[in-house]
Each structure stands twice: as C-alpha cells, then as structure tokens.
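Entry, Tuesday afternoon. Goal for today is a structural model of the target with flavin mononucleotide bound, before we commit to ordering more compound. Inputs were pasted exactly as handed over by J.K., no edits. I checked the ligand SMILES twice against the vendor sheet because last time a stereocentre got dropped in transcription.
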Amino acid sequence: MSKLMTPLCHALGITIPVIAAPISASPEFVAAVSNVGGLGVIQATWLSSEELRKAIAEVRSRTDRPFGVNFILSLTVEQGHANLDAALEEGVPVVSTFWGDPAPVIERIHSAGAMAIHTVGSAEEARRVVDLGVNAVVAQGVEAGGHVCGEVSTLVLVPTVVDAVPDTHVIAAGGIADGRGLAAVLALGAEAAWVGTRLLLARECNIHPA
Ligand SMILES: Cc1cc2nc3c(=O)[nH]c(=O)nc-3n(C[C@H](O)[C@H](O)[C@H](O)COP(=O)(O)O)c2cc1C
C-alpha cells in the first residue's frame, strides 16, 4: 500500500495521488496511468460518442482500475450531452469538467453514481462549484499547459482553494513535473497532483513526435 494514500485516493480507489490530465484520448496512455495506481482520464471533448464508447471499451480491455473522462463544457455545447450520456451509460466512475458551468450536469453525474470533478482557477470559483455539489476541485495554476482558466500561480492558488473549500478534495494542477512537485502540493493541502505537460513525454501518449 502506498504511503502517499490520501482521502481522495480512497474516494477514487487509486493508490498513488497522481491524476493524468486529459491530454490524450489514447486508451493505452489512460490505462497505463491507472495500471500503476494513478487515475487516467480520457480526453472526450473532441471525440464522437461512438469514438468515446470505443475508447472506454479499449481502456477497460487494458485495465480493471478506475479511470475518468473529461469534457470542456463550453466546447461541447453543440453536441449537447450526448458524450456525457455515453460515458455515464458505460459506467465511467469519474467525470471531470472544465471551462463552463457544471451546474446543468452535476445531478446527472451523481445519479449515475459517478464522481464530479471541476477545474477552477480561483478560490471563489471553487466555493461556487462546491456549493453546486461537485465532489472535488482541481485548483489549476496559471502556469498550467494547454487550456487554462485562472491568473494565479499554483503555489499561491492551492492553499487559498484548500481554505475556501475545507471539506472538499482539492487536486493541484500546473507546473507539477516530478515527486518534489507532488510533495510540495501535498504540503499545501492538496490531496493529489493533476499532471499534464510532463506526461506528454510518456511513451504511451499519442502526441505528434515534434
Ligand atoms: C496538451 C494539453 C491538452 C490539454 N487538454 C485539456 C482538456 O482537454 N481538458 C482539460 O480539462 N484540461 C486540459 N489541459 C489542461 C490540463 O488538464 C492541466 O490543467 C494542465 O496540463 C496542468 O498543468 P501542467 O501542464 O503544467 O502539468 C491540457 C493540457 C495540455 C498540456
């Protein structure tokens, strides 16, 4: 058993407090993260419902550990909730959302028995989405790669979010690239690190070689 088990690890059923950001829809990558005890998350924003169901099935063929799906809400407006419905019908245990209001989807996520995680860039936003019912927040610092929502750096943001939502699991994102970064955000009160850029270099991640 990992010595780094946190309350969030128990809630998610993982053994290492590391979550791979949704940087890829590669089932091989997502399953590899879950297989070593972290949580892999499928990037589902740019998949059709059919592709998403296929990706979920492929992840399941490679791991029996928990994993999640991620939706950038403001970019999935046109497709409605078709992909979310697909993920929930397939029994995905964790749904992560970003960029947009999670209010319309939280109840559906919970009704399906899944955990709702939303990414925030400020303590105020964290308080708001926790009051809406999300189970965990990702506190994303401005140094994060890819899609970013806030203006505060990770080192400053994480403790303010921890203080704003003291009874909620807080996950830290932005600039975490090794064990020292993980130790630092755990010391700040986060219960896991959410890692993106560093994992682009993973062999299993299907990004362009350049
Ligand atoms: C290539 C890339 C793609 C990303 N795509 C998404 C996405 O689709 N949805 C999302 O919620 N976050 C996305 N992010 C942001 C990550 O979830 C995360 O907040 C960020 O990578 C953390 O900072 P780091 O890159 O310094 O580890 C992306 C990040 C990268 C680097």
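The beta strands are 18-20, 40-43, 67-72, 94-98, 115-120, 136-140, 169-173, 192-195.
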